User: Fold this.
Amino acid sequence: MHPSFKFNICWWLEDAGIEASTFDNVVERLPENAGPSQAAWQETFSKPAQVHLARAHAAEERGESASAEYKKAAFYLRMNRLPKQVPAADLQATERAYAVLGKPLRRIKFRTGEKEFIGYFRTLSTRSGSNEKPPVLVILGGLDNLKTEMIRHSDYFMGRGFATLIVENPATGENQLGFRPESSAMLDTVADYIKTRNDLDTSRVAVYGWSMGGYLGTLGGLRNDFYQAIVNVGGPSDSSFGQEHCEKAPAWIVAPYTVFANMNPLTTPRQAMCEYYEAFQLSRQLKMPTAAQLRKPILMVNGAREDLVAKDEPSSLADLGFNVTQLVFGDDGHTAESNMREHFEFTANWLMRRLKIGD
Assistant:
């Protein structure tokens, strides 16, 4: 298992309130070399999920808080998800967990062209008698990251005063769009929705993209002047899609990249996959950047031990003339996940300066 995926599981466990030893006991029951598409894997994680769902239902019948049990059930259901399939059971359990807390994940339906995608809108209640409107942060997860996996990010930025809108990448979860550069138009649809809300500060809106969401957030955020700042955490943008990097990218990411390109990972040569993604390069998508695009502040966060995207992404964007701030953690890898709390704080402070919040 790749280290970054192991770390994902660690903070999923923390969010769900499940001890690592408890999870280890479940994993020990897996047959050797089992994978999510196999019945044995699905059965292994379905059993604890159903136990926690039963406990949650019983707690609700007794009039007790059931949120913790729904979160535990959602974690195990998430372990059974498959790429490019809607994880209905995980979504339902997670949404119920927050609903019973009185903090509902408000589902917003968007349409771009003929395709739909669903987002979670979240905001804190304004103080009684206050006319202050919160700034907005649009949050995108990584390749195959579900909305439910980005709630931790949303929680932090809400705590810093932002309303948040979490959306999934194309071809992930409840996003029907295809995974290609032109799907960055989904951020235009999100912008149009935000503009309709008179309870938000629509002059202070930014995009926050995690891993592959950093790519779509950067491209879509640059293409739409409505967005005032962009945060790209460990996401590719230009040099990562070049032939030189693609040919040496770690093998563990080649298969999912190939799947999201609608190619067969068992029969598609790496070179064919690399040629497909070359068109994603920011320099190809924005051949003649406008002055406004070049001025727009971009924060790029990552670890020095990165092995997925090209380490020179910030400098490659800066060389193209973009306004880039770089934050690198020397002891960390992809998306600097073991320093997540530190870069959350840095990012919030950076956004507040760039959006002139508190002025």
In short: The longest helix spans residues 39-61. The radius of gyration is 20 Å. The chain has two domains: 10-97, 105-354.
